[in-house]
Amino acid sequence: MELNGNQTATDVNQTKPIRCIVKLGGAAITCKNELEKINEENLEIVSTQLRQALLSSDKVVGMDWSKRPGISDIACNVAGFRDKLRVDSTNFIVVHGGGSFGHFQASNSGVHKGGLQQPLVKAGFVATRISVTTLNLEIVRALAREGIPSVGMSPFSCGWSTSGGNLPVADLSVVAKTIKSGFVPVLHGDAVLDDVQGCTILSGDVIMRHLAAYMKPDYVVFLTDVLGVYSHPPTEPNAVLLREIGEHSLLAIAVGEDGSWSITKPTLQHMNNQVEITVAAHDTTGGMVTKISEAAMIAKLGIDVYIVKAASSHSVKALSGELREKIPDDWLGTVIHFSREEVQ
Q1: What is the mean pLDDT of residues 210-234?
Q2: Can you say which residues are annotated as belonging to the binding site?
Q3: CB-based contacts of 283: which residues, under 8 Å, 6+ apart?
Q4: Staple partner for 80: which of 61, 310, 317, 342, CB 3.0–4.6 Å?
Q5: pTM, rounded to two decimals
């Protein structure tokens, strides 16, 4: 991926060190089978866990000073900020998927296939962006209520575009300046312009890989609606949670330059040497298939990746970074990592 304007990779790397990039899976923070419905309980727990894991202060001074449905008062604690010398912030980035927001609009209009000259696709592009930016605002507000200085950022508005569905160019200057100023960028999967097919959907998982490549976080966490990566769809009785993926673990994968992957160890005859994954019909971003591919590409950069269930005790350990020292036997999730020697 190249950088626009006068920005270089060196400029981005001069930003304060990034501790973690977190992906909030759409299925974990929304009710994916109910159109545009947020899983309020999960989102609240996840926001609290992010504050506890990544901010140094336990005192919550909310930053959402807007009126909420069903609540007459606006929570604006000005006095709480007068007592603070600074706003606590550990450098991290949040990216979220769409879940029940955006996918319906995109799949019904064919935005992900391109053809922007068609009225239906153009209308779907507008409708998709309305939907995903609505979700982005609600996530930013949930984080802000926990005292996290979050700022919503849309790839389309940042000028990101694709070429044949790939992301060769992305201007990270605004993201870097946002972090340098002490804010937490909150990005999301988005409808973007494409110089080959007119338009497409840029998934949050692809955004994760590009951010990781240039921001060089200490670790990356994918929060999902299941415990991790399974050998089969987790609803099947013979599904097994794959706890660790890496060259020196019991399970290893080979990752191609294009992000394609396959299990190399052990030889899983009963699985035909592959993990079976289903993708919802309305999911225009590839679901878990894309997630594993992008996570594996991040791991190839020498960055440990944790895939874990959102709003659980296991996600707290992943977010805090304590798994980098040792993974407890009772921790449930999937770790994808490659040794530094393998990366070089």
Answers
A1: 91
A2: 98-99, 103, 204, 225, 287, 291
A3: 103, 107
A4: 61
A5: 0.87
